[in-house]
Each structure stands twice: as structure tokens, then as C-alpha cells.
Write a structure and sequence with these properties.
It contains four helices and twelve strands, in the order αααββββββββββαββ. It is an alpha+beta fold. Strand 1 and strand 2 form a beta hairpin. The longest helix is centred in the first third of the chain and has 18 residues. It binds 2-acetamido-2-deoxy-beta-D-glucopyranose (NAG) (5 copies). One 2-acetamido-2-deoxy-beta-D-glucopyranose binds next to loops. It comes from Danio rerio. This is 5-hydroxytryptamine receptor 3A.
Length: 231
């Protein structure tokens, strides 16, 4: 008798547990943040609530392949994977309130993104840019994109085929000085070189020797702009 009642009790508990299980969607997180398409609070301005604080953008470039090196027109065409990560302090939620959701992928036009350009690029690349960003519960925003970059490079192939060429890729923000955007390399030279060696799909007649990453300031109209230089 007592055995039967014990098992009934267990069964009830189990049903109760199933019924109270929370169901969440990633849309609930966006609703909680009031992060809607066209909400200017998120799209117009650089995110720190205190405007005197710069936005630190961790930037990384991975070299996938060298598509071409044309001496006559001094053109270097690498295919790169670029990632940029920064913090947006308007974005914050507790994963415990949303069934453990820790990240949400959303269209790029819903949030402010830094305007990053490559100094050496001479032609807008074709192809579709990745239209999405990933946000995390603690406000990290990640932007990832692959690009074919048609860039200028001072080439000197007199000693072909035993020559060494040095090309630069310089990343900077057009509209924001270094008081507003600080670019920080996510990988140092050692790591960037190692990753490029691991990733490089086709080297063709070129062998990658070294990638060095450096941070420099560029002066323009009396303002200092920070640049990241990959060589
Ligand atoms: C959410 O955003 C909408 C439009 O962008 C605005 O009208 C509304 O007041 C906001 N609600 C809250 C709670 O901030
Ligand atoms: C967000 O970025 C900070 C600083 O770089 C890092 O410490 C933290 O682990 C990141 N959060 C997630 C969820 O990746
Ligand atoms: C940023 O710079 C670009 C290129 O110079 C310009 O087209 C754009 O209007 C600027 N954006 C802002 C918000 O000033
Ligand atoms: C470069 O980064 C790697 C891994 O992130 C680290 O182990 C190494 O010590 C760093 N090297 C220098 C010179 O900072
Ligand atoms: C690669 O560049 C780094 C940083 O500029 C330098 O310390 C290292 O000696 C270079 N390695 C080679 C093989 O050129």
C-alpha cells in the first residue's frame, strides 16, 4: 500500500516539473532589450553611455590566400577573413532569465558598427558582405567578414624568383579619432603569422614569411587616428 502511494507522488512531481519548464526564444531577448529594427538608440551613436570613453575594437585579420601579385600595376590581392569585436553597454541580459541563451545573431543594420577601412584598398571588392552580427549577454558584439582586397603594394621583382615582397594592410576608422575608437590587435605578430601559415590554402609561387602587426597613429586635420598595420 505504501509503495503504491509513493510512486504516485513521484509521478506528480515529474508532471509538475515538465509543466513549469520555461520556453524562450531569441526574440524574447531582443524584446527585453527593446532592440528593434530602426531603434535609433542602437543604430545612431557609438555605444558607451559615457561618450568620453573610447570604444575598444579588437581586430583580427586571417590571410586565406594570395589571389594575385601583379608587378606591372603594383597590385596585391589577398583574400582575408576579418573579425572585429567591441562592447556595447546598452546590451546586457542575464542568461538565467532566458533559459540560458548567451548569444543572439542579428542583422547588422540594427546596431552601430565601427566604420573600418583599409588604406591600401583601391577598389571596392565584389561579393556579398556578411549581413549579420553576433551579440553576447555581456554586450560583446562580433562582426565577421571575408574580403577580397585589391590593394596597392610597392613591388620589386627584379630578383625573381628569389625576391621578398613586403605589403601592408592598414586598418583605420574614417570618422572616429583615437579618442573615440581604439583599435587593438587581437593577435600579436607571432600568432598572426602562425594562423596565416595554418590557414593559407594556396601559396602558389609565394611563400609567406612573416606577418607583423603594429599600432600606429596617423595625423589628419589636427586629429590623431589610430591605425593597425599588418605587414
Ligand atoms: C522601445 O523603442 C521604441 C521605438 O524605438 C520606443 O518608442 C519605446 O518607447 C521603447 N521602449 C522602451 C521601454 O524603452
Ligand atoms: C566579452 O569580452 C570580454 C573582454 O574582451 C571578455 O572578457 C568576455 O569573456 C567576453 N564575453 C563572452 C561571452 O565571450
Ligand atoms: C564616415 O565617413 C564616410 C567616408 O568618408 C562618409 O561617407 C560617411 O558619411 C561618414 N559617416 C558619418 C556618420 O560621418
Ligand atoms: C603572442 O600571443 C601568444 C598567444 O596569444 C602568446 O603565447 C605569446 O607570448 C605572445 N607573444 C608576444 C611576443 O607577446
Ligand atoms: C617576423 O617579424 C617579427 C616582428 O617584426 C620579428 O620579431 C621576427 O624576427 C620576424 N621573423 C622572420 C622570420 O622574419
Amino acid at each position: 500500500m505504501s509503495l503504491v502511494s509513493a510512486s504516485v507522488f513521484c509521478l506528480l512531481l515529474l508532471i509538475d516539473g515538465v509543466l513549469s519548464k520555461q520556453v524562450c526564444s531569441k526574440q524574447d531577448v531582443l524584446d527585453y532589450l527593446n532592440l528593434t529594427r530602426g531603434n535609433e538608440k542602437f543604430t545612431t551613436c557609438r555605444p558607451p553611455l559615457d561618450w568620453t570613453k573610447p570604444t575598444i575594437v579588437y581586430f583580427d585579420i586571417h590571410l586565406f590566400c594570395i589571389l594575385s601579385v601583379i608587378e606591372k600595376s603594383q597590385i596585391f590581392v589577398p583574400f582575408l577573413w576579418m573579425t572585429a569585436r567591441w562592447n556595447n553597454d546598452l546590451i546586457l541580459w542575464d542568461p538565467k532569465d532566458f533559459c540560458g541563451i548567451t548569444n543572439v545573431v542579428l542583422p547588422k543594420e540594427m546596431l552601430w558598427v565601427p566604420d573600418l577601412f583599409i588604406l591600401e584598398a583601391i577598389e571596392k571588392e565584389e561579393g556579398l558582405p556578411n549581413p549579420y552580427l553576433t551579440i553576447t549577454y555581456d554586450g560583446n558584439v562580433t562582426m565577421e567578414d571575408d574580403h577580397k582586397i585589391i590593394s596597392t603594394c610597392a613591388l620589386n621583382v627584379h630578383k625573381f624568383p628569389f625576391d621578398t615582397q613586403t605589403c601592408h594592410i592598414t586598418v583605420f576608422s574614417v570618422n572616429h579619432s583615437d579618442k573615440e575608437i581604439k583599435l587593438v590587435p587581437a593577435s600579436n605578430s607571432t600568432k598572426a603569422t602562425q594562423m596565416a601559415r595554418d590557414l593559407l590554402l594556396t601559396q602558389g609561387e609565394w611563400e609567406l614569411l612573416n606577418i607583423s602587426v603594429s599600432n600606429q597613429n596617423m595625423l589628419y586635420e589636427g586629429q590623431s587616428f589610430q591605425t593597425l598595420k599588418y605587414t
